[in-house]
Amino acid sequence: MRVLAAMSGGVDSSVAAARAVAAGHDVVGVHLALARTRDALRSGSRGCCSREDAADAARTADVLGIPYYVWDLSEQFARDVVDDFVDAYAGGETPNPCLRCNEKIKFEAVLERARALGFDAVCTGHYARLDPSVPELRRSADPDKDQSYVLAVLRADQLRNALFPIGDTPKSQIREEASALGLRVAGKPDSHDICFIPTGDTRGFLADRLGSRPGSLVDHETGEVLGTHAGVHGFTVGQRKGLGIDRPAADGRPRYVLGIEPVSGTVRVGSETALDVSTIDARSPVWTSGAAPDGPFGCVAQVRAHGGTAPAEVVPVEGGVRVDLGSALRGVAPGQAVAFYRPDDAGDVVLGSATITTAH
């Protein structure tokens, strides 16, 4: 099988490519150049798109003895991931750029080009298990590294042409395997930051692009104006720190962001218990089987990449789905994805996902 290995320059994608070679596939490595200005992503970044990372990917390809190329997808990345990220925050939502990158870049733009070039599959270093013939996407064997949530946006036709070779192995063993193969990236730190914000200053990044959009911080219960802010893009539902309120709540407990109204610029704050939600409305559902459900079904719902799970019933409605939670979840923000897992098999199998519009 001809396999295109997406190589970020990290240990995970490096070992994934090595396993594809060991499996006897005809493998070609490709590094994705996603920044419009390469120097803007400094060497040593904790993201995954620096020039250092490109060099690490090239060295790994040399060790594995496979062809290696760099594909410039910076314009599409800027449009579909970065601009989407900024627009979502401006609209009071909390997007997940890694999820959008998987959907629009790695398994749309890259996969389409790979198919056109005659490749049978795209291989990545994601921590998830996959049976492409079904297709059936499952959680990783390493629960601490599981990335099935950020892959739950993929369609059945995309999953049939994907390979996740390391999803059955704990991260510690992946590093040992890389070391045994003589790969210099064996001890390389994991990437943590948003790759296009290597400084980690998300608020500053958004302020540079959106400027000042003053609004009010309002007490959810009393309607009292507690302060002002420079823009709703500086907040997300569930946020506790950095609210800019100069006095404590009447009960002395912390306040949290409960809701964001982008048109009026109002940020509603209140107690932690007010973050509890029992119903989620979501748009644009994607079903990994390729077929929409005939009616309501039970599942385990997940609203964050790690944690935030509850038993739920998903009800198809016009334009999307309603998710009725069996137990309350906190800090559910519009713009996030809600992923659906099959309730048997320990909730390991991904059924689909949708983008959250409201939670109450």
Give a verbal description of the structure.
Belongs to the MnmA/TRMU family. Keywords: ATP-binding, Cytoplasm, Disulfide bond, Methyltransferase, Nucleotide-binding, RNA-binding, Transferase, tRNA processing, tRNA-binding. ATP binds at residues 6-13, 32, 125. This protein is an alpha/beta fold. Among the domains are: 2-125 and 165-187, Rossmann fold, CATH 3.40.50; 212-274, Roll (SH3 type barrels), CATH 2.30.30.280. 25% of the residues lie in helices and 29% in strands. The strands form 4 sheets. The chain has a 6-stranded antiparallel beta barrel. Strands 3-2-1-4-7 form a 5-stranded parallel beta sheet, with helices on both faces. Helix 1 links the parallel strand 1 (2-6) and strand 2 (26-33). Helix 1 crosses helix 7.
